[in-house]
Amino acid sequence: RVICLCTLGRIGHNCRVPYNACNRVLCENDGHCVSFVEHALQAVCICPIDYFGDVCQFKIAKLTTHIPRTAEFIPVMIVHFLHTSGTIPGDVRCFFDEVYMCLVDRDQLIDCLIFNHEVEHCTDRNFCTNGGRCLESKRAGQVHFACVCLECHYGTFCQLTMTQYSLTLDSIYLGLYYEVYRNNIIFEIDSKCVNATYTANDDGSVGVWNQTINLIGKYSSIKGGSTKVKNSMEPATLEVKFDKQNQVGSYNVITTDYENYSLVYSCKNIRYHCYLYREQSNELKIYWIMANAQPTCPSDNQILDYKNSHKSEQLTTGYGRPLGERSNVVTVGPRGPLLLSDFPYIEDIQRFDRERVPERVVHAKGAGAFGVFEATDDASDICKAQVLKKGTKTRVLMRFSTVAGESGSADTVRDPRGFAVKFYTDEGIWDLVGNNTPIFFVRDPFLFQMFIHSQKRNPQTHLKDANMVWDFFANHPMATHQFLFLYSDRGIPDGFRHMHGYGSHTFKMVNDKNEFVWVKFHLRSDQGIKNLDPTKAKALAGEQPDYALSDLYNAIARKEYPSWTLYVQVVTHEQAKTLPYNPFDLTKVFSQNDFPLRRLGKVTLKENPENYFAQIEQAAFSPAHMPPGIEASPDKMLQGRLFSYADTHLHRVGTNHHLIPVNNPETNKNVKVCTYQRDGAMQTGHNQGSAPNYHKNSYNGPDVTNRDKHIEHATFESGMAARHEANEDDNYSQPRVFYRQVLDDRGRANVINNIAEHLQQCTDRDIIRRSIAIFANVDDELARRLAEKLNLDVPTKTPTASNIRSKY
Fold first, then answer.
1. What letter does residue 531 receive in the DSSP assignment?
2. Over pLDDT 70: what percentage of the chain?
3. Alpha helices, DSSP H only, in 112-229?
4. SS3 state of residue 196
5. ω into 588 cis (within 30 of 0)
6. DSSP code, position 802
7. Which member of 56, 171, 196, 219 has the lowest number of beta carbons within 10 Å of its beta carbon?
8. What is the tally of helices (H) and strands (E) in the chain?
9. Nearest 5°: phi and psi at 573?
10. Considering the chain, what is the average pLDDT of its residues?
């Protein structure tokens, strides 16, 4: 077979047809068309200075900006500002507020980016080249820089020039792009590793190939093509049609820094079962940020961010002696023995050998961040605590955790989540130490250790043991309520941001008149509830065991600040007497129908820890830490925790753990700690100085003031001191309400599947039968469906105690 290789300007089988690709390309604004051969005869417009685009249809702005990769920005908001024009005074070139920094070009077109702090020239830095002006943003301990380039320059440092030609659409758009951001559209829900490849087709269209790993971990891809749409209002518009599913949409390249990012969106109907996502205008508004370098999370760049914002300093020993060498120990000759006189080495290895403190016996795996609590509503009628006075703002630390796992375990397992808040109030520390569930497994503190042992590892095999878990349940039906909650969809929250928190216990609030009420605390996620599918959770446990920790850190680093609204349920003294259950039973809830939520304020997290060990691992929470106006109730579990938490901190982080900065109440400058406590290991404070060390004294040592304001509310209890049976109360009425009324059909099916999946891991069939028998007291259908899944006959219900009325 003979193949003709045609010269430029000829096409066809025998090269007989004259053809000039420029005949179909009309360059605007005095652009010059050039034909060239690359797989096929093509043409490109060479644009004059000040113009760019496929056919030189766009004018280059005289003032451009580069958005650095470390700067966070919200695509939807940038779109809102793009192509905005208005009457701007001729001498205005830059304006900003607390959120945006906007640049105005000579044609009064505005380009805005998130800049959310003071704007000033960079100091002590030769940051921008070619006369570019450097802007500096300082926020949350981080420094970001942006270069505003002179005409005909671009790039991170204005180091690139386009004095000869402008970039065209193809050079902006074509190539391999990685997805940096998207809203969770229906055809990409929970997908990861998304990328898109755009290629030039011979007919002038653009080929599109999207690839992803879907929510169940399976690779998938879709191909299609697009045609460029001439639109003078957009830099690039593509009408895209995919080969499958008859999916059609309009893609628009909104902005690019010509190096790292393109912002792509679609605002037309996509015929793809998306009706749930359409706005009233019957249009979809879908956004992507595409990067031509693989994206990284803020946490991935932490060490690089440190490098960019810090200078290297002189290395010293722990006692401050400057070191001249850090790579070699002192030896007798190059191959001789070590010398004990090598103090820098000895000091270093001794400190290394003692770096770890004992991990928490429960709640070992966790994450945390700092923020602010603002009291938004008046609560003075029920509580005198200053932290709840309307308008008060208080610094907080929040720590989230799993319960049973070790420090290095996965945080996507089915397990309750710890939810602790440390308020640095004007009246000392308030620790609200709860969980993401409003109830717990046991109501007596003597059972707590036994429950935890059943959830941890078998003492011989050192493996998790389903027989132990369900044997505890079969012997303690009081755990029924919590087990149903745990094996529901909420048993595996999607990270820490998308779950509610609860104080769980009943607490006492006292007002200025010395009147008291009983309350339960609720912290409701403003992000909404999201839970992980069990299959995905298992995959994440292997692939990304720090999923929840990473999600929290990176959200805050992106300035997507999570928040929770604090509520209380209020029960008066008289109402508590009439309840058909013990109001201090941790396995029970107060019905929100009878006792609605009352808002107190909002917690917002805005600051990641600077050092995890110092600020999160050493954080010591205790429910015994309460300001005047908030007190403990007779809840047995709460009473046990009042002692246990402080005791475990003495073991874990030492006698003077309250002096560690993260635990120190004097973090609040309005607080001064004055006690008669002295000395102890690691006493690093002023140790109360020269003040007398006994009370009462005649020498102006600390003494009580304002007794009526600060003294605890008086309580009266009477009864026989005995070991009262903890399993005597009604264990099934509230679990029945949860199963029948709180869960919907899908939720009931999921809780059955989840329980059955774990029960079938038990090798002791008797434990399975006894567990199902307990569930039969909750609901006959629940027991029947569990028995069917496990190939068992429906067992007889276990004997139940009568519904005992409150003894309060």
1. B
2. 72
3. 169-173
4. strand
5. no
6. -
7. 219
8. 17, 34
9. -60, -45
10. 79
Q: For residue 493, which of 548, 551, 557, 559 has the smallest C-alpha distance?
A: 548
- Structure-block tokens of residue 587: 């396995």
Those residues whose C-beta lies under 8 Å from the C-beta of residue 333, and which sit 6 or more positions away, are none
Measured CA to CA, the distance from residue 486 to residue 657 in angstroms comes to 33
Q: What is the pLDDT of residues 63-121, one digit of tens each?
A: 343 333 333 333 333 333 333 333 444 444 555 555 555 655 555 555 555 554 444 44
Contacts of 651 (CB under 8 A, 6+ apart): 358
Angle (CA) 340 343 349, round 5°: 90
Q: Which residue has the higher pLDDT, 260 or 757?
A: 757
- Write the DSSP string, 444-480: SGGGHHHHHHHHSB-TTT-SB-HHHHHHHHHH-GGGH
DSSP per-residue codes, 625-687: ---TTEEE-S-HHHHHHHHHHHHHHHHHT-TTGGGSGGG-GGGSTT-----S----TT--S-T
Question: From edge to edge, which strands make up the β-sheet containing 142-149?
Answer: 64-65, 142-149, 133-139, 120-121
- SS3 call for 744: coil
- Token digits of residue 548: 């929840």
Collapsing DSSP states into helix, strand and coil, what is residue 136? strand
The torsion angles phi and psi of 532, rounded to 5 degrees, stand at: -90, 140
Q: CA 206 from chain center: how many Å?
A: 38
Residue 688 is classified by DSSP as T
pLDDT tens sequence across 604-632: 999 999 999 999 999 999 999 999 999 99
Contacts of 3 (CB under 8 A, 6+ apart): none
Segment 146-186, tens digit of pLDDT: 666 655 555 556 665 543 322 334 445 577 877 776 665 55
Decide which of 79 and 202 is more confident.
202
Residue owning tokens 């770890």: 356
Any idea where the domains of the chain sit in the sequence?
A: 10-46, 58-161, 169-295, 672-702
Confidence category of residue 127, pLDDT binned at 50, 70, 90: low
DSSP letters for 295-346: ---GGGGHHHHHHHH------B-TT--B-S--S---BSSTTS-B-TT-HHHH
Q: Which amino acid is at 733?
A: S
- The answer to whether 496 and 417 have CB atoms below 8 angstroms apart is yes
pLDDT at 325 over 70: yes
d(CA 594, CA 764): 42
Q: Is the dihedral of CA 234, 235, 239, 241 positive or negative?
A: negative
Token pair, residue 101, equals 């920094």
Alpha-carbon distance of 200 to 175, in angstroms, equals: 9
A 10 A CB-CB count for 55 gives: 19
- Which pLDDT value is given to residue 740? 96
As given in the structure block, the two tokens for residue 186 are 């229906």
Maximum distance among all alpha carbons in the chain?
A: 116
pLDDT at 73: 35
Tally of CA atoms within 13 A in the half-sphere of 630 that contains its CB: 26
CA distance 477 to 458: 22
Q: Which residue's entry shows tokens 């120190």?
A: 664
Q: How far apart are CA 267 and CA 282, in angstroms?
A: 10
Compute the distance between CA of residue 126 and CA of residue 120 in angstroms, rounded to an integer: 14
47: three-class secondary structure by DSSP: coil
Q: In 3D, which of 32, 88, 31, 34 has the Cα closest to residue 60?
A: 31
* pLDDT of res. 803: 40
**pLDDT value, residue 601:** 97
Tokens of 366: 């966790």
Tell me how crowded residue 377 is: count the other CB atoms within 10 A of its CB. 14
Catalytic residues: 363, 435
- Asked if pLDDT for residue 275 goes beyond 70, the answer is no
Q: Where are the alpha helices (DSSP H) in 23-127?
A: 75-81
SS3 label, residue 736: helix
